[in-house]
Amino acid sequence: MKTALATAFLLVMVVQARAVTTATQAFTTFTDENGNVGVVSVARQLDPFTHATTTTTVTYSFCVQTTAASCLEGSGTVPNDAFTGNLTSSVGKADVLKLHADTTIPGFVNELCIAPDPFGGCEGGISPATGGLISLAFTKKRGDIEVFTSGDFRRENFKITLDSVSTISQFPGKVQGTVIGTNVSTDASMAFDTETGKGTPAMDSLLERSVTPQTLRRLQRLTGNKL
């Protein structure tokens, strides 16, 4: 009986300590044929509270650095099957993530930014625009990894309500494909976040660790500062 109870207790501890991948993300900056710098970011996010719902979000912009009078950008959710593949922490695997998203679908917001400024704004306002197809393949570079770990702990009324560790594993890589008619073949970054423990910690942004401030401001405007 004691052996059975001990085994059951160990099984419960293993389940509670299981690492759950809560986010997978890839992004790249690129230069179009006119010399304008753009960005694409895609994230697959598991609901941090229920671990039951997954949402895939795509954000793109041709306005990061441009001298054009106006430029195209957009953000929204896409079907989960538009972003396929998984990342592992193995530096020996060239994991591949594929994005094939149609930004003309209902609910996805495409807009023309008039007189874009370097702070993520549009001095001349915005107007509705038509998006298009984003088709990219991100390939993780073998041999490289950078890991960021943070912990969250909280005790309420003498009881531990939060005791969790977040681990972000980030990798350099390459990306090839097209962004609404623009050919892309350049460097990329890929990352995934795992949570281990009890409770729901504050989510960390994978993007904030890697992009330039100018790129981050542009993405924050498009996503309503939710990254």
Strand content: over 45%
Estimate the global geometry from the Cα principal axes: globular
Please provide the ordered H/E string of secondary-structure elements: HEEEEEEEEEEEEH
The domain count comes to 1
Helix content: 10-25%
How would you name the oligomeric state of the polypeptide chains in this document? single chain
Major sheet characteristics: 12 strands, antiparallel
**Radius of gyration, whole Å:** 20 Å
Q: pLDDT below 50 for ≥5 consecutive residues: which ranges?
A: 1-16
Structural class, please?
Answer: mainly beta
Query: First CA to last CA: what distance?
Result: 50 Å
How much is the average pLDDT? 85
Write down how many β-strands occur, each being a DSSP E stretch of 2 or more residues.
12
Number of helices, counting only DSSP H or I runs of 4 residues or more: 2
